[in-house]
Amino acid sequence: MTLTEFAYGFKKTLKGGILLYLLFLLTRSGVRAAIGYYREKNPPPTPGPKMALGVLEPPKLIRLSLPESASPTYRLETKTGRLPSFPDRIEVYPVVLPEATLMSEARIRDLAEMLGFRALPKNLSTTQLIWTDPTYQRVLKADSVLRTLSLETGNEVLANNLTVGSVPQGEAAIKIVRDFLAAKGLGDPFLAEADAEAVPVSFTAGGMRGVDSNEATATYVAFRKKIGDSPIYSLWPDHSLVGAAVTGSKIEAWLYPRIDYTLWNVAADQSSTYPLLPIGRVWEEIQAGRGFLVELRPLWHGRFTPYSPIEVTEIQIKDIQFGYFESTALPEFLQPIYVFSGLALMPDEATASVVIYYPAVDYEALNPPAE
Predict the structure, then answer these.
(1) Where are the alpha helices (DSSP H) in 270-316?
(2) What is the three-class DSSP state of 114?
(3) What is the CATH number of the domain that holds 116?
(4) Residue 168 neighbours by CB distance under 10 Å
(5) Which helix (H) or strand (E) element contains residue 333?
(6) Cβ proximity of 245 and 258 under 8 Å
(7) Measured between alpha carbons, how far is 206 from 49 in angstroms, rounded to an integer?
């Protein structure tokens, strides 16, 4: 083979190799593009909710009754005019069960003494104690294991002795109550992140009522706890499981005439995801009147006014959001609920605020019906 023939053959081989390499690159790029397109159009299935906490029972919600003649229509009047979008799963949190210790009852007795109760308590059960203060008509109930507490003062004595003026209000009242709870050993870290609302109130023989600030004889500071970014709701939206009324009374026993304290510890780091009931199905249930009506209050009624059934012709839902439900009875889990809020129209065209709860977990997916 001459040098010329070798050079010619080498060039020919080199060109063929380059063409083959380019063909390889194009083929590989095409295969990758095809795989990418297939995966885009046929993504792998998303792993389902973990449901690691086992089978759940729906929370025990209670609904307010409407008059038998009432059959309101439901209208969606959100800002967009549509149902909002929600994910397909939601977190459920276990509640930490309290443990009794040798110091449990001693701590509750010390707390009662700090609140001015000097007499010995009576036992309502092995864990529940009750103190009475006949002088100032106060009653304190507490559970030494659950660490729940309620202090109530006779409504009539408060109505006759508390006066308008010198009542802490707004942020000042919130700070006073936060500091008071902390000083009594009730300033749980969970409360530090809770939203707080200062509600001007007065006391009548019928109980505590929300009023205008210039008519207030006390301020009730209500705490609404949160888990993540979601608020935690009690059985009735008006009421808080943790709160206290503060007054300007010169009698120490009446400075805090009402205290509500039910605070369950939630294991936020042990949550698990569960399937969420699609909002479309929930809206159908609401329209059929199967939601849990928990507030229906004419706008001229103050907060905490006892409910009495009223005739309504239409319910306008203006906002839908997530929340979590917490009851006064120790729950096993903190479970999510949908919260529908808006206005109700009465036959005379007056309006009332309305709130409706509905469980958010798809319980049928956890317990499919037998075929």
Answers:
(1) 279-287
(2) helix
(3) 3.30.310
(4) 19
(5) strand 333-345
(6) yes
(7) 48
Q: Note the pLDDT of residue 38.
A: 46
Confidence (pLDDT) at 367 = 67
In a domain, 54, yes or no: no
Query: What is the dihedral sign for C-alpha 117, 118, 124, 128?
Result: positive
3-state SS assignment for residue 192:
helix
**What is the pLDDT at residue 192?**
77
- Using the 8-state DSSP alphabet, how is residue 125 labeled? S
Q: What angle do CA 68, 70, 75 make, to 5 degrees?
A: 145
Domain enclosing residue 20, as ranges: 1-44
pLDDT at 187: 81
Residues 358 and 209 in one domain: no
Q: What single DSSP character describes residue 59?
A: P
The 10 Å Cβ neighbour count of residue 107 is 14
| Residues 128, 237 share a domain | yes
Angstrom distance (rounded) from CA 234 to CA 241: 7
Give the chain's end-to-end CA distance (angstroms, integer): 85
What is the pTM assigned to this prediction?
Answer: 0.83
Within a domain: residue 250? Answer: yes
| Cβ 323 vs Cβ 231: under 8 Å | yes
Those residues of the chain that have pLDDT short of 50 are: 37-38, 42, 44-45, 371
Rg (alpha carbons) of the chain, rounded to whole number? 31
Closest alpha carbon to 89 in 60, 41, 57, 52: 52
Are residues 256 and 120 part of one domain?
yes
Q: Do the Cβ atoms of 219 and 245 come closer than 8 Å?
A: yes
Residue 133, both tokens = 């203060």
Using an 8 Å Cβ cutoff, are 150 and 140 in contact? yes
Tally of residues, the chain: 371
Asked if 281 and 260 sit in the same domain, the reply is no
